[in-house]
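PROTEIN–LIGAND DATA SHEET

This sheet pairs a single protein chain with one bound small molecule, pyridoxal-5'-phosphate, given as SMILES. Inputs appear in the order they were entered. The predicted three-dimensional arrangement of chain and ligand is reported afterwards as a token string under its own label.
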Amino acid sequence: MPLSDIQDRIRKAEDKAGRVPGATRLVAISKKQPPERVEAVLEEGHRLFGENRVQEAAAKWPAWKARFKDVELHLVGPLQTNKIKQAFDLFDAIHSLDRPKLARKIAAEAEARGHCPKLFIQVNTGEEEQKAGVLPQDADAFIAECREMGLEIAGLMCIPPVDEEPSLHFALLAKIAARNGLESLSMGMSGDFEKAIAQGATHVRVGSAIFGDRDYG
Ligand SMILES: *Cc1c(COP(=O)(O)O)cnc(C)c1O
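PREDICTION REPORTED AS:
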């Protein structure tokens, strides 16, 4: 689907939800996409992208960042502590902060560099075994713990279970954010970003709806 169609759908969803036009940022998730598809979206002027693997992003993005000005890159997938330095080099935001050890190492790196990527705490709203993120009941304490380490937390992120109504998960995430004074909400993907906008998403992470299926070859 053309980028402009996705942007139209975002504006319509904002309007329908009574939100300020432009309140939602579109993070174009370029993981596992053929380079020409990503370049086409860069050529159209879009500058905000997301990747779910540090290694893959490190292989692709330095060249694009050199070629296209003002690219903003977000990490939306898991971060291992041994990749923190690389993540600081590449990413303007990390959406997957989910454990104290990672928070401590990010805080140390931020201290050393004098700056820190924008941080989102991932919440496992569906309490799924295999999924990353802090449990909803542990979120308040973890947010407080990160703040005590000196980290500035921008907001929360979630990936709802595939077989459940996402709106309930988006609403839960919004509620946890509100009671902790957090303004940013990273939620909503290709199949449900309009529902996420209705619940207050500030960042929607849309991949296949923009670029097409990743399942090739
Ligand atoms: C791949 C991915 C997306 C985008 O998924 P689509 O269904 O292609 O829009 C969003 N968020 C995360 C964390 C992802 O890994």
